[in-house]
Every structure is written in C-alpha cells, then in structure tokens.
Amino acid sequence: MLTEQEVKELFIKTGAILEGHFLLTSGNHSPLYLEKFQVLQHPEYTSLMCKDLAEIFAEDNVQLVVGPATGGILLAHEVGKNLGTRAIFTERENGKMVMKRGFAIAPGERVLIVEDIVTTGGSVVEVMDIVKAQGGEIVGIGLLVDRSGGKADFGVPKQALLTLEVPTYAADQCPLCKAGVEITKRGRTGK
Q1: Model pLDDT for residues 39-49, shown as the tens digit of each residue
Q2: What CATH number corresponds to the domain at position 76?
Q3: Owning domain of residue 50
C-alpha cells in the first residue's frame, strides 16, 4: 500500500497540485487546486492508487463499482478490475447526474462508489442517490483525495488515500478576491 505521503508525492511530481486562486466546481474559491488528470494520465500511477482502494474494500463483498464521469470512469474500471467486479459510471445530463448507456444496479447489489477528489462531496451524494433509487446497497466510498480534511461525511464507510485540509471560501468571503488576485477557472469550468 502507498502511504499518504507517497500519494501526495505522485500528485506533486506530476504537477497535479497547483497554487493560486481557483474557482472550484462547487462555486467556492481556493488557493490550492488538484488537477487530477495530471496524475490520472499516467496509467501506472492510476493503477497503483486503484489497487490500494480495491485492497481497502476487498473484504466488503463488493459486487459493483460506480464512479461519476469523468475521473470516476477510470477509477471505477481499475478498482473493479482489481476486485473482479463490474464497473459502471454516472454522467451529467442537463446538469443532473444520471445513469445511462443501459447500466443498471440490481436490488441488493453491493456497491462501492469511487471518486477522484472530494471537496464538498456533492457528486458522491448524487451518485449515492442513484444507487439507492435502484435498490443498491452502498458498502463504502473510496477516494483518491479528500480535500475536506476528513469532514465530508456520507453516512457510510469512507476511505481516502490522501486527506488534505485545503481552505475554501465562499466567493463573497474570499480573501484572494479581496486582495485582487486574478481567479483561474479549472476543470469543467475552463482553462
């Protein structure tokens, strides 16, 4: 198993940890951004981290791994491969998380949800709602990085390979905005 420091070093050496003034998907602002695809573009690193997530949940009789698009697709596939299970994903349609492509969850099926980076946990909650609506039993949440400092609580077991305490600010409370630091939009929202 990789240590937390080794996971952090993978993010650092691939340039996945950025400093500045960032607009997050949640609408909050932060001085730190994790550009997950800088590390996920390296299959060997993704494979190592997903093997560890699979090992953490190996005794939970996982029957299906689900991840939200886009990073969650890679993670679900790799974790599912290591657990010997199916792997599917959810995606956004008109701003709402949905399950498409003929994917289905059988009632009572034991589901592990995987996600790359959690700040507020909104996407994970949306995936949980889909799993519950189809009758799946959520056995846990596996994360590469929990940037909530461990505060994100989903009411089921949660394990992160790396936990960071990263400050986030509501736009109207952001000290970086008040200091006039130019904001950068990352991920889905832009450059």
Answers
A1: 999 999 999 99
A2: 3.40.50.2020
A3: 4-189
